[in-house]
Amino acid sequence: MQYITFNNNHTMPQMGLGVFRVENNDTAKEAVKHAIIKGYRSIDAALIYENEEMVGRGIQEGIAAAGIQRSDLFITSKLWLTHYGKDQVITGYETSLNNLGLDYLDLYLMHWPGTDNTLMIDTWHGMETLYNEGKVKNIGVSNFEIKHLESLKAHASIKPVINQVEFHPYLTQQSLRDYLTTEGIQMESWSPLMNAEILTDDTIQTIADEIGKTPAQVVIRWNIEHGVVTIPKSVTPHRIEENINVFNFSLTSDQIARIDALNEDKRIGPDPLTFNG
User: Where is the catalytic site (predicted)?
Assistant: First the structure.
């Protein structure tokens, strides 16, 4: 496993398991447990996914089965818009902690910027309070565009360590990536496999054939090559194992360029400039 370093010098695994759209039942628990046993050290959760309880059980069972400590894992969750506002942040945070059965999170994110700039900034101040009081190890944002980050920059005392956004070969986000690099904010990709849509792309399949890897491994490796943290979701044991097996090969500069050229600025999720829950 490779790690990236945040602007506060803390570190995070460059790959983890996403649990979006996983039922709050044994499927979630077993996926998380299996991932931890197979070497995953990062789990990405969210209050709005409504599965934190079983994800938390999977974390506990995974820790026991893998013979590791809680401190060996990097657990993320996200604040939903219903808990926005400086004074509401602590309630959202403690709700997720209680759901997950944890004493702290390694990373807590504002899930969306929302359409109220004043509320967004006020909420970030609540996130800063969490961090300053030592309740969470790192704070960041999700689905923020440059304009949102510029607003935070003008009013915040703490810079986000990370921005988790939609990123895949059909949405390469070059201007946002360049901005984040300049600002020292790590980029993280959600839905890197586009709900499996990207796996049938001819270019991805051709490159997979060239190097003897699966299309999913090619796309995940492409994320890694770009320095992006990525959290592909799977509940299938062999795919969970396949997805993490991406650190023993590289893509050539030509292969990376061919994948980059697939960009269509195509989103499968909401537009962050208009989405408000």
Answer: 49
| b/e burial code for range 52-78 (CB count within 10 A of at least 16 → b) | bbbbbbbbbbbbeebeeeeeebbbbbb
26: amino acid identity, one letter: D
Degrees, nearest 5: CA angle 42-81-274? 100
Q: Is 49 a catalytic residue?
A: yes
Residue 111 annotated as part of some ligand binding site: yes
Average pLDDT over residues 247-271: 97
Tell me the three state secondary structure of residue 155. Answer: helix
For the chain, domain boundaries: 3-260
User: How far apart, in whole angstroms, are the C-alpha atoms of residue 122 and residue 135?
Assistant: 18
Q: Please tell me the pTM assigned to this model.
A: 0.97
Q: What's the one-letter identity of residue 179? A: Y
pLDDT tens for 143-178 read: 999 999 999 999 999 999 999 999 999 999 999 999
pLDDT at 192: 96
Contacts for 118 with CB less than 8 Å, ≥ 6 apart: none
In angstroms, the CA 21 to CA 41 distance is 20
- The tokens for 172 are 């390469």
Per-residue pLDDT tens digits for 27-82: 999 999 999 999 999 999 999 999 999 999 999 999 999 999 999 999 999 999 99
Q: How confident is the model at residue 194 (pLDDT cuts 50, 70, 90)?
A: very high
Catalytic residue among 3, 40, 49, 93: 49
From 3.60.21.10, 3.40.50.11010, 3.20.20.100, 3.40.50.720, which CATH number describes the 3-260 domain? 3.20.20.100
